[in-house]
Design a protein that fits this description.
mainly alpha; 82 residues; 3 helices
């Protein structure tokens, strides 16, 4: 059996709601708090990502000369004989 205080509170609060629809679902304060926390988390992750992306060097490495890539032309490769 519901308490008398709960019943009195409901009778005072129902007139404050202009139209109460039992089929309507709203997120309420908890939904706003969860959304705000998620928004702050995304903002922090984006800020961190930008900081790390500034540290990355996107320049192409300089290409080595043809002789340097194959090794010293004076020196035979392993397994080869002169």
């Amino acid at each position: 059996m519901p308490s008398v205080n709960a019943h009195l509170a409901m009778t005072h609060l129902v007139p404050l709601a202009k139209e109460v629809d039992d089929d309507k679902v709203t997120p309420g304060v908890l939904g706003f708090i969860v959304f705000a926390v998620m928004a702050l988390a995304v903002w922090g992750l984006m800020k961190s990502m930008n900081k790390h992306m500034r540290k990355v060097d996107f320049k192409d490495p300089e290409k080595e000369p043809v002789g340097a890539a194959a090794g010293d032309p004076e020196k035979p490769a392993s397994g080869e004989q002169r």
